[in-house]
Write a structure and sequence with these properties.
alpha/beta; Rossmann fold; UDP-N-acetylmuramoyl-L-alanine:D-glutamate ligase; 3 domains; nine-stranded mixed beta sheet; six-stranded mixed beta sheet
Length: 481
């Protein structure tokens, strides 16, 4: 754990006692702060108190005594409607922050020579794969790499910082809009597409929240920008005009000057005067698809900018075992391949899987995002049949019906999987793919996308006759490191 020593003697309110809230509260206590922590859910409060978190009813507290307020990233302070705790904080002029801001201050308080290197990753899609890949590369190269943030461990639950540590941090827009002090030695902006607009209001405001990843960088730091979407291309041009830092464009579609690109399945670096072939990405079994080629380019750019050897980085990329719930191959039944892409919670994320496979028996549905699956219509010819679940089933059915795509509406994921497997077996196609890529949030039927993916994995393993569960890609990654 990282002690929040910079908050010693201050009174800090904490709302939201999930993973990050508990770690923030305990970090603050360890650093000598007076902590008032609360959650609207009684069971969550009881669980947090058992872990040593001081509980104080913030609805009855004297907010005039509160110096700062740590609000869980998932709880809104503006749109669509500010939480009551955010209203109280604003009324008393109490700054609203999150755990990332606490970490940022702790890092800044250290002498320069003792600070960890920070690699920060944001974007609409690809964050988790890129974050995990960077952690894998660093560990493969013998570095002390800690991974956290919007994935895995809360940042204040990471091992204590020391010289030579690398913190690889996935950052959501929710976290970035409450972070003012973070300086990233390498900051990655992968892409931007419409998402979380209920929280940010407009695509422009969503993008501005993401751009906070570049705040506080110096000319010594690396700015890495994906240029395969219109927003990223425009952002990169703007940064080159107004920014004195090292701008490194990344692309999986074309060659880029002073950047990193994937062409013909191979990864090339033009970060120095001489173009370098890093590795053959077609040999990276866990990085299928053009979007993953861009993720690999981003990971290489970030790690290379910190001085690691290009050859070692390339070897580590090829040995990456992949990320659970993101185009994760579960196994096969006869000639059928089961792919768990539960993390695809919007159409743009589902596009990445659909564009990577043919002869797809597609399981989709849940709580739909704005636009539904209509943006995927150019890929419908890859879908042999669709199996629709959750709240979005009727709307998705209407879209598929108008496009002439065969579909069935099923109540449960289990039934959808059974029907998809039956049809794949009877289809006669050479290599059918049974793909869970919902293009939806999971909240109508599952607590989160991880639980949805675990359910798919377990059910697919039962169909394959596997008695002993297969370890997830993330668990394999931990062992390999």
């Amino acid at each position: 754990m990282i002690n929040a020593d910079t908050f010693r003697g201050r009174t800090v309110a904490v709302f939201g006692l999930g993973r990050t809230g508990v770690s923030a509260a305990l970090s603050l206590v360890a650093g000598g702060a007076t902590v008032w922590a609360w959650d609207d859910d009684k069971d969550t409060r009881i669980s947090a108190e058992k872990q040593g978190v001081p509980i104080e009813n913030l609805m009855r507290a004297d907010w005039s005594k509160v110096d700062e307020f740590v609000l869980s990233p998932g709880v809104p302070h503006k749109l669509p409607k500010p939480h009551w705790s955010a209203k109280r904080a604003k009324a008393e002029g109490v700054p609203i922050i999150c755990d990332i801001e606490i970490l940022a201050r702790e890092v800044a308080a250290k002498p320069e020579k003792d600070r960890p290197k920070i690699i920060a990753i944001t974007g609409t899609n690809g964050k988790s794969t890129t974050t995990t890949l960077i952690g894998h590369i660093l560990k493969s190269c013998g570095k002390d790499a800690q991974i956290g943030g919007n994935i895995g461990r809360g940042v204040l639950d990471l091992d204590r910082m020391h010289r030579g540590t690398y913190y690889v941090i996935e950052l959501s827009s929710y976290q970035l809009e409450r972070t003012k002090s973070l300086r990233a030695n390498a900051a990655i902006f992968l892409n931007l597409s419409p998402d979380h607009l209920d929280r940010h209001g407009t695509l422009e405001d969503y993008g501005l929240a993401k751009q906070a990843v570049f705040a506080n960088q110096t000319h010594e730091d690396a700015v890495i920008v994906g240029v395969d979407d219109a927003y990223g291309k425009s952002l990169c041009s703007q940064l080159k005009v107004h920014n004195g830092r090292s701008i490194i464009p990344i692309s999986a579609r074309r060659a880029v000057g002073h950047g990193v690109s994937a062409l013909g399945g191979k990864l090339f670096s033009n970060m120095s005067k001489k173009s370098l072939e890093v590795c053959d990405l077609s040999q990276a079994v866990a990085l299928e698809g053009q979007h993953n080629y861009q993720n690999a380019a981003a990971a290489f750019a970030a790690v290379s900018s910190l001085g690691l050897d290009s050859k070692e980085i390339g070897e580590a990329i090829l040995s990456f075992p992949g990320l659970a719930h993101r185009m994760e191959t579960i196994g096969t039944l006869r000639n059928i391949r089961f792919v768990n892409d539960s993390k695809a919670t919007n159409a743009d994320a589902a596009r990445q899987a659909l564009s990577s496979y043919k002869n797809v028996f597609w399981i989709a549905g849940g709580v739909a995002k704005e636009g539904g699956i209509e943006p995927l219509s150019d890929l419908f010819d890859r879908v042999r049949s669709a199996y629709l679940i959750g709240e979005a089933a009727d709307d998705f059915a209407a879209t598929l019906d108008s496009a002439g795509v065969q579909y069935e509406i099923k109540k449960t994921l289990k039934m959808a999987l059974l029907c998809a497997t039956r049809d794949a077996l009877q289809s006669g196609v050479k290599n059918p793919i049974v793909l869970l890529s919902p293009a939806c949030a999971s909240f109508d039927q599952f607590k989160n996308f991880e639980m949805r993916g675990e359910a798919f994995r377990a059910q697919a393993q039962n169909l394959m006759g596997i008695d002993k569960p297969i370890k997830s890609n993330a668990e394999q990654d931990g062992e390999a490191a």
